[in-house]
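re: that chain from earlier
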Amino acid sequence: MSDLDQLTQSLARNLRRWRNDRGFTLDTLAARAGVSRGMIIQIEQARTNPSVGTTVKLADALGVPITTLLDHEQGPRVRLAPPDQAVRMWSTDAGSAGTLLVGTEARGPLELWHWTLMPGDGSASDPHPEGTAELLHVTAGTLTLVVDGEERTVPAGTSAAFAGNAPHAYRNDGTEPAEMTLAVSLPPVR
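^ sequence. v structure.
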């Protein structure tokens, strides 16, 4: 498959996914983006390569970066956010601060968890519904995160984001307790 074919397929898949995730009909997206319904249909069926301007309009209307629409990765992805990529959003002279650790495009019900995993212990999860996103931040120890069979080592201070619609597990393969804060965003009930 050529790079252009891969880009066309990725855009088709991602546009359809994000339009459905947002609950937009073809007509709603067309009105929000200022792009014809017919053009959106052609893009979603991978029958055309739209201009950069059209792609930007669609991304803006969906509220996602253009890179999200062009992303060729398939399946559940894990994005690790090392401590040096955290963004301090505000601080005061007194030492107070707010730091954005990791984010996701998800919407819907949101759960916040605190987990402690003792050495050698773990927890596996069946896939959640399509559209579920999980964010975690390891505060102590080292976590082994397994998503769709792929293992990632997540040391203290590191955050991760991944789609929760694949089998996933949390393990502590270390010798000291691992602690994490976990947020689970579920898709809205329709």
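The mean pLDDT is 86.
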